[in-house]
Amino acid sequence: MLKKITDVARVIRSKNCSPFELTLDIIFEKTSIYEKVKQGNLINAKVIAEAYGIDEAMINGIVYFEPAHAVKINLPRPVPSGAPGDTDVYGAQQHAPLLKLKLQV
Amino acid sequence: MGEIMTRKKEFRVLSPTAILGYGFPEESFNRGLELMPDLIAVDAGSVDPGPYYLGAGKSFTDRAGVKRDLRFMLKAACRLDIPLVIGSAGGSGARPHVEWCREIIEEIAVEESLHFKMGIIYADISKEIVTEALHENWIEAIHGVPELTVETIEKAECIVAQMGVEPIQDALKTGCQVVLAGRAYDPSVFAALPIMMGFAPGLALHMGKILECAAIAATPGSGSDSVMGIVREDHFELVPLNPIRKFTKESTAAHTLYEKSDPYHLPGPGGMLNLKDVRFEEYPDGRVRIYGSQFEPSVQNMVKLEGAEKIGFRTISIAGVRDPIMINQIDSIIETIQTNTMQTLKSEKIEASLHFHIYGKNGIMGGLEPEKDAPTHELCIVIEAVAPEQKSADSACSIARSTMLHYGYPNRIATAGNLAFPFSPSDIKAGEVYVFSIYHLMRIGDEPLFKSEIIEL
Prior knowledge:
The structure holds two protein chains of two kinds.
Chain A: E1 2-4, H1 5-8, E2 9-18, E3 21-28, H2 31-39, H3 45-52, E4 61-65, E5 70-76, E6 102-104
Antiparallel strand pairs in A: 1-6, 2-3, 3-5, 4-5
Chain B: E1 11-15, H1 26-34, E2 39-43, H2 52-56, H3 63-80, E3 84-87, H4 95-111, E4 117-121, H5 127-135, E5 139-141, H6 150-155, E6 156-161, H7 166-173, E7 178-181, H8 188-196, H9 201-211, E8 227-231, E9 235-240, H10 249-257, E10 265-268, E11 271-274, E12 279-283, E13 287-291, E14 294-297, E15 302-321, H11 324-328, H12 330-347, E16 353-359, E17 379-387, H13 390-406, E18 427-443, E19 452-456
Parallel strand pairs in B: 1-2, 2-3, 3-7, 4-7
Antiparallel strand pairs in B: 1-8, 4-19, 5-18, 6-15, 8-9, 9-13, 10-11, 11-14, 12-13, 15-17, 15-18, 16-17
Helix pairs in contact in B: 3-4, 7-8, 8-9, 12-13
């Protein structure tokens, strides 16, 4: 069944993991949903690249983390934290495109 | 302090707050004291607020808040005769930040008639050491960071290294009741003493990783509430100190992800925390026990360097746009304003760079914004000028702002002015601008890297 990600995830967030890199976390409500997402590799570089309108090669890594039934995506920051032209020093508001995703779970 | 060196199969660490100065309810802190902690430890720092604070030597936390928090902690540590360890003092943990925090501690000691021995550990690394390491090929750029050059080292305002547990242990071994450390790997301040007492480094460091954010890892989370961690032989336990919060498997596991690029492998000074086999178990009263956290010592001892470079001064102007004819062509208008302003600056021999933050369009995500054409009825524009001199930044901002205010864009009907300013003056001097110029790993030898001193208060 195609579901809105906001109906199956309880946390969707972004944050700097360094002044040069962003990390996006999606934490699923239930283990069963997490398993389906992981088995089907539903959160992959293509999906993220399309959501952000960026090149797949820009994605630094996608890690599934079982203990939190979560998936983590790392992206380079377009501008390092706090440098001229930066838009989000903490990187805490870069998650919004994920909220539009739909998952076949 | 002699007593804790010889006793018991568990070690209790009280973490009063996520960042020194963020505060905590007195009741939570007191509940923690009733559980007879062996250590009070607090992380005071972060790179989150950006490069300014490290470069300018200023704290991002409020002095009154830091003093309030420290007063509780110092009095409790002296009363219970247990150590208090403060890491990344003053936010960025360079010498000015450490001195700032030291002054606050000295004030409290006088005001409260407290007497103790304090170890102060500086995290500043001289440019000579870093340059030598660069020549020895001992410097490694962290993912996404440009390679280090001698020029970058020379231009750095200051360079700090994140210390591990050893410098803190050295200070504790001399009998210091209070350890005031400069920039430190966040878990170090919580883990140094339990590791010294013989508890497993993997458990102590993983516990430190969670305690450094205090109640953020509980549910509901909070950056300004106290929690306790108890490390035992084969696990550690997290204990909430406020009845409205509890730790759950989910809240604790979720926190392990927070701000990390790889939740299974967390590198730090001296080695890597491996969480492949970690297991979370829930216990009554909102407690969680964590098993299986492993520490893998590294072959090469590395520290993480952080440095900031001053690149100039900033002036900004904030303005709104409500005219739909203008909003519809904002991209081309901005492009023209940028070109025209840069031409004017060039002819007047003013060196500056300009950035336009367009809120309502892509002000928050910039190049990562996928919704490029979403309709909006108003925009907020922040004009940002950065230049080597404050007066050049002022001029650049002023020229861009006035050019934009009266620019006759195609099909314009409103000819009185294009911008709504919320403030007079419209332009704001934002002062010095720094960038993170160094964020690299440095291999270290056997000789102590961190300078320290011991004082009696």
